[in-house]
Design a protein that fits this description.
Layout (H helix, E strand, L loop, with lengths): L9 H4 L11 H11 L2 H21 L7 H11 L13 H26 L1 E5 L13 E6 L51 E5 L5 E3 L9 H8 L1 H6 L1 H4 L2 E3 L7 E8 L4 E5 L2 E4 L2 E2 L7 E8 L5 H6 L8 E3 L5 H6 L9 E8 H9 L3 E6 L16 H5 L12 E2 L6 E3 L5 H11 L6 E2 L5 E3 L2 E2 L2 E3 L4 E5 L9 H4 L2 E2 L3 E11 L6 H5 L14
Antiparallel strand pairs: 1-2, 2-22, 3-6, 3-22, 4-5, 6-20, 7-8, 7-14, 8-9, 10-12, 10-13, 11-12, 15-19, 16-17, 17-18, 20-21
Helix pairs in contact: 3-4
């Protein structure tokens, strides 16, 4: 066979093959536009529409500058975000595919948690029996309008502390002023509301999960000791509004309303309010027979909430306080709803009962406002004095004096930023270092209470909730765990999955 190479001149045979010219970024962009599949164009259109609507909702049109970046990610590919897909190293492609998926998921979760809603765990019994300890809720932020993140740089799956490693899960390098996007409606009376704990601006870390928050510790031990003894109290830190611990309570008083409690009944502007169906109080009760484990489970009573008073020198005296109690009666202290009282009565067990707060053992509880509540003898059942008090409303002006300074000073100094405000020895009030006879509120405020009325740390203890602390309202229970039972013995409350989080509304 003839070798065709013999006919090729030597100079031509030795000439190297020319490589194609390197494609420019614009050439690559034009090629990608031509080759992009229809389905990817549709995906880009959907994402761009959602993003544009979000910018309009946010009312900050500078963010429209992000549209060209989305166009590049989905269509042109000028910025090589997906460089790893062309790597010859299989390990690189595998690792980076996971990194890409995780980053995408975290960005999506960030936006959902910031602007749509998020899950929240009920850590305490303050809203029993409406919500139970161990309920995991879906909290809707759209109803009242989501807050623009005050600390936008944060890890999306942690509230204020990094899991496992500890330390802050947020950065204060960038902090935004409070602004809320338009919502569907305002907070209404009876709403169950998730909000940041108002007294949680300063935290002694060892007491973060304790009812004795920083300001109680300062009153009890003194500020210098709390800051000095870090081994006992932990490091003292300040937290921005949106990084304060989340609480969940019922809104029982709205801005501008006159609030008062008389004999456990809430009065708004002088009118008695209907109690929630599942409201419960703490009782001293006489039983003919013990309360069984099955009853505790069926009535969703936490065993730790039930205390049996053992027979002793004082037991007979307690029996005399309860009408219907006999010499053989078993004395229990426990929280009960009206339905639970009826159930125990039908079972022939409940002989008599009396509210604990009627016995005068819960009188001195450090109620809000300090000074006024103690001096006038306010209690959990009779709160607000003879005439009640008006809940502050945005634009409302009040006169300032020594009598009402305890009611408003935290609003003025801590929530609305007039830190150089105080009352002098002569009773004169100063705001921003200047004498002031009146003050006009810059925000709306709310009064929040738990349905477990005698076992709830709420506004009766730490005062008003500012509007910038409002997070959202829970819509339903995602899942519920009973911490007193194993997973295989009723530890999962199946009947509460997708249960309405606020059946009274």
């Amino acid at each position: 066979m003839e070798n065709n190479n013999n006919n090729i001149p030597k100079e031509q045979a030795q000439e190297p093959v020319q490589k194609p010219a390197k494609e420019s970024a614009m050439q690559r962009a034009r090629r990608n536009i031509r080759e992009t599949r229809k389905t990817r164009w549709i995906r880009f259109a959907i994402v761009a529409l959602v993003y544009t609507l979000w910018v309009i909702w946010l009312n900050n049109y500078w963010f429209l500058l992000g549209l060209p970046l989305l166009f590049d990610i989905y269509i042109t590919g000028i910025i090589p975000f997906s460089w790893w897909k062309n790597s010859k190293n299989k390990a690189t492609r595998t690792i980076m595919s996971w990194v890409d998926a995780i980053v995408y998921a975290l960005i999506l979760v960030y936006f959902i948690f910031c602007f749509i809603g998020q899950n929240y765990q009920i850590p305490s019994p303050s809203l029993e029996k409406t919500l139970l300890t161990g309920d995991y809720l879906w909290v809707n932020k759209v109803v009242y309008g989501p807050r623009v993140p005050m600390t936008p740089i944060h890890f999306p799956l942690a509230h204020n502390t990094m899991p496992f490693v500890g330390g802050n899960s947020y950065s204060t390098l960038i902090e935004n002023e409070y602004r809320r996007l338009p919502g569907l409606r305002d907070v209404e009376s009876g709403d169950i509301v998730v909000f940041n704990f108002p007294a949680g601006d300063t935290v002694a870390l060892n007491y973060e999960e304790s009812p004795e928050h920083y300001y109680i510790l300062v009153d009890k031990y003194g500020r210098e000791r709390v800051h000095r003894e870090t081994e006992k109290f932990g490091k003292v830190i300040y937290r921005p509004v949106d990084r304060r611990v989340n609480f969940v309570k019922r809104a029982v008083g709205l801005p501008g309303e006159r609030f008062q409690i008389k004999n456990d009944t809430i009065y708004i502007n002088g009118k008695a309010q209907k109690q929630p169906e599942n409201v419960q109080y703490l009782y001293l009760a006489a039983f003919a027979s013990p309360i069984t484990d099955d009853q505790l489970k069926d009535m969703e009573i936490a065993p730790g909430d039930v205390q049996m008073i053992q027979n002793g020198p004082d037991t007979e005296g307690l029996r005399t306080l309860i009408r219907g109690a006999g010499p053989a009666s078993l004395i229990f202290q426990l929280p009960m709803t009206k339905a639970m009282i009826d159930e125990f009565t039908r079972a022939g067990q409940l002989q008599g009962f009396r509210k604990i707060n009627e016995l005068g053992v819960m009188a001195d509880m450090g109620l809000f406002p300090e000074g006024i509540a103690d001096a006038e003898g306010w209690t959990l059942s009779n709160y607000g004095g003879k005439n009640g008090f008006v809940i502050p409303q945005k634009g409302m002006t009040v006169r300032l004096n020594a009598e009402n300074w305890p009611l408003y000073h935290r609003i003025i100094r801590n929530y609305e930023g007039h830190t150089d405000s105080y009352i002098a020895a002569d009773g004169k009030v100063y705001v921003d270092g200047k004498p002031a006879d009146t003050y006009t509120f810059a925000m709306d405020y709310y009064f929040m209470m738990g349905d477990n009325r005698d076992m709830s740390q709420d506004s009766r203890f730490w005062g008003f909730v500012p509007e910038d602390h409002i997070v959202g309202t829970p819509m339903f229970v995602l899942i519920s765990f009973d911490k007193d039972r194993s997973i295989f013995n009723g530890g999962i409350r199946w009947n509460r999955i997708f249960h309405d989080a606020n059946p009274d509304k």
